[in-house]
Amino acid sequence: MSLTLPGDRLASAMEYVPGPGVYERNGELFAALTGELVRDEQNTELRVKPAVSVPLEISAGEQVLGRVHSIRESMATIEVVRVKGKARQVGTWIMGTLHIARMSEDYVSDINEVYCVNDLVQAEVDETKPALKLNTKKGRDGVVGARCSDCRDRLNVVDGELFCTECRQREARKLSSEYGQVQL
Questions:
Q1: CATH topology (fold) of 3-50
Q2: What predicted TM-score, i.e. pTM, was given to this entire model?
Q3: Which residues form the Exosome complex component N-terminal domain (predicted)?
Q4: What pLDDT was estimated at residue 1?
């Protein structure tokens, strides 16, 4: 095992190509992270396996959980708090956009009939660059947790709709098939 520190010279760029945790400068390869040096002779690649966990990166196709931060006429802004299947939480404040055309397979004329501010939603990442674009068209995607817009009590699913047992109000949302089962 070979421990590297950031800035350590590892090899010439003529011998290896830089992999994760390695960068090239002036024809030389250097460690970008503290960790274990891994030499992949088959692919002639050098990489550094981090000694500590690195910030979480979000990729297209991943499922994310987030809170509806704001709603406009044609889109909702979602604060992403977790990537499903990964133990580590998102470390920085990451906002994604959910356009009205990507909310449901059905036609959506009013976003407020699909999502409300502070709803907890599950979405799929469509794009990460230049901005995070989300999609909730699939059945597993949509609202996974919500509160009554009047009394703020937790809403329950009754006959396919959200129902408040406290104030007896029904609310429409684009429900995930996993409503009430997702924990942050």
A1: OB fold (Dihydrolipoamide Acetyltransferase, E2P) (2.40.50)
A2: 0.70
A3: 3-40
A4: 61
